[in-house]
Amino acid sequence: MNLKDIIAEIPDFPKKGILFRDISPVLRDPAALSLVVDELAKVIHPSEVDVFAGIESRGFPLACALALRYNKGMIMIRKQGKLPGVTHKVSYNIEYGTAVMEIQANALKKGQKVYICDDLLATGGTAKAAAKLVEKVGGQVSGFVFIIELTDLKGSKAIKDYKYNALVKY
């Protein structure tokens, strides 16, 4: 099974000139989703992770699936205003402006090892912000996993200090 054949390409979304890579068909297909989890499980050693963190929103199902596979917990890194209680915030640049993400202040215990999950690595701004949040609450980033990497955007440079893996590269 080739994931590139399953990932949908949506032209001119979210704005004209952008070719959006949509993992929704992968999530709908149990065999494709199982393949994603199986392939990522090959690069994550159980000793490297205590908790999986999902970046809103397409990172959530990936983090949940991996957390279940490893019998670990899952935490959420969300857009500003979406998490209850005390949170920590990070502002960062995205392709179309700036954004703010948050993590709950009590999401992690000091020193917990975290794998951060998202659907796509583009410029790396979101991934880098997620790492800052994990570290801000006392976590240790073990690495990142993505389904897709857009190599022309050089997002790997933003997270060069961390291990990462992407299953499909465009």
TrEMBL record:
Chief localisation class: cytoplasm
Catalysed conversion reaction: AMP + diphosphate = 5-phospho-alpha-D-ribose 1-diphosphate + adenine
A GO cellular-component term linked to this record: cytoplasm
GO molecular function ontology, one term from the record: AMP binding
Keywords per UniProt: Cytoplasm, Glycosyltransferase, Purine salvage, Transferase
Entry-linked SUPFAM superfamilies: PRTase-like
UniProt-listed InterPro entries: Ade_phspho_trans, PRTase-like, PRTase_dom, UPRTase/APRTase
Annotated metabolic or biological route of this protein: Purine metabolism; AMP biosynthesis via salvage pathway; AMP from adenine: step 1/1
Ranges where the Phosphoribosyltransferase domain occurs: 35-163
Record's subcellular location: Cytoplasm
TM regions (residue ranges): none
Function in brief: Catalyzes a salvage reaction resulting in the formation of AMP, that is energically less costly than de novo synthesis.
Subunit record text: Homodimer.
Recorded family membership: Belongs to the purine/pyrimidine phosphoribosyltransferase family.
HAMAP family (alphabetical): Aden_phosphoribosyltr (MF_00004)
Protein name: Adenine phosphoribosyltransferase
Species this protein is from: Nitrosotalea sinensis
